Amino acid sequence: MTCHRYKHALLQLASAGVETKPDSKLHAHLQTCSSCRSAFENERSLFASIDSCLRSSANSELPSSFIPTVRARFQQEDQHEIQQQSSTTRGSGRLTDRLVWASAFAAAAILLFIFTRLDLRLKPQPTEGPLVTQQAQSPVAPQTTATEPLQVADPQIAPATRKRFAVKTATTLNKHSVLTGRREPEILVPPDQEILLARYADRWRRRHQSPSILLTAMEPTQTDPLQVPLIQIAELDVKPLAPLAPDQKNDQEYDQKYDQK
Amino acid sequence: MQELVLIQPGHTAETDLQRDATEGALRREFEERLAECGPLAFRVARGVLRNTADAEDVAQDAILRAYRRFDKLRDRARFKAWLVRITFRLALDRAKSSNRRQHRETSWAQPERKPAPPTAEDLAAANQFRSRLDRAVDELPEKQRLVLLLSAMEGHSLEEVAALLNIPIGTVKSRLFFARKQLAEKLR
Questions:
Q1: Residue A32 belongs to domain spanning
Q2: According to DSSP H, which parts of chain A are helical?
Q3: Which of residues B113, B147, B169 is at a domain's end?
Q4: Which of A57, A73, A74 lies nearest to residue B47, judging by beta carbons?
Q5: Which residue from A243, B16, B62, B169 could staple onto B87, CB 3.0 to 4.6 Å apart?
Q6: Domain carrying residue B67
Q7: pLDDT tens digit string along A41-63?
Q8: Rounded CA gap, B41 and B58, in Å?
Q9: In angstroms, rounded to a whole number, what is the distance separating the alpha carbons of residues B7 and B22?
Q10: Who among B67, B129, B154 is closest to A49 (CB)?
Q11: Residue numbers in B near A66 (CB within 8 A)
């Protein structure tokens, strides 16, 4: 049996510890082979030092403050849990209160809105101005006199076109009614010119950004007969402005001949 | 005079009392186990970290974590192994983080740090062997390392280590043998 064949057995024996006895063959080889014996002793001392180092580090003394510190941390942990539970309960209570208050406010707002709408519907609407769509009796607007200034009114358009021009007339003419100081101004319009007048008034307002002359209230002094100063025009001197056409030349020659005669 | 008791909505006084009694029993049981397993947790952490202050801190964290989840442990007889595993994992994490921190703090100052060649005086020093052994233990696989650590503790036979780790005794023996063999190869 060579030393190489004992190598693994020697390693196992050395790592097993001092108490382990080698078997008879290995023991006999160790008695005869000095190199294997020295190698075995080295291995055994190496493993012994490893074990002693491991034991010394693994069996270190427990500090005396270890258990009291752990118990103190337990108590801190318990107090922390109690605080967390109480804060969670309080927080949930606050949240519930907030939700109740928010829903109450929302319900109150909805009810207020509904009652407001109902009130508006039940309230009698102010009667609209006299309709002028039925102007067939007098197709021409009555002439204004000096004592009866032109009255301004909401253009009462035929029902078919009423919706289309309602907004426009409301935005244009109602402003003028404020200017004139009347609450329900009126305009007498022939039935076939209602739309045209509404458009004209709107364009006029847009262009001049001022109330139409038709829609402004006229002061009593403005209703006096118009006094226009006399205009003196000098004698007119008519001259041709462009060269004459061939026909006109013939005419001119004829005139000259006639004059000579 | 009538005695009034404040009760939370959805709870009754009896259920609260029962719950308090259960928690108290759990607390007492855990404290009894703490006196038995506290030193073990500390030694496991000390064996991994080789620093008393860090080991104490890690063992306390492990015990606190076990305390929080003690009511969820189904087999109370396995508490010791459970605590050992928690402590071992926490200690390994702490060792890794401290190694990373140390490497980060020293790498900028010594970019090309090479280990100094061992001299005769160094080899003769008593702590040289220990430092080499510590490095070799750190390089062991975790399973072998835990078996080596537990078997090195006083009062732990191989059967106890096997019972603690819930593995066969043959597995404990093989892991221990290969761990010591690797250590010896690195220390030779």
A1: 3-57
A2: 3-16, 24-32, 34-58, 66-122, 159-180, 194-208, 246-260
A3: B113
A4: A57
A5: B62
A6: 14-113
A7: 888 888 888 888 888 877 878 88
A8: 9
A9: 19
A10: B129
A11: 38, 42, 56, 59-60
- Considering only CB atoms, A47 lies closest to which of B39, B46, B184, namely B184
10-residue averages of pLDDT along chain B (188 residues): 55 68 78 83 87 89 86 81 90 86 69 55 67 87 90 85 90 90 86
Nearest residue on chain A to B178, judged by CA atoms? A15
Question: Can you say whether the dihedral through the CA atoms of B65, B71, B73, B77 is positive or negative?
Answer: positive
Give the ipTM of the model, two decimals please. Answer: 0.70
More confident call, B57 vs A165: B57
* B105: its two tokens: 């703090």
pTM above 0.80, yes or no: no
Contact between chains at A67 and B60 (C-beta distance less than 8 A) = no
Decide if B133 and A54 are in contact by the 8 Å CB cutoff: yes
What is the tally of structural domains in chain A?
3
Rounded to whole angstroms, how far apart are CA atoms A30 and A227?
Answer: 155
For residues A119 and A134, state if they share a domain: no
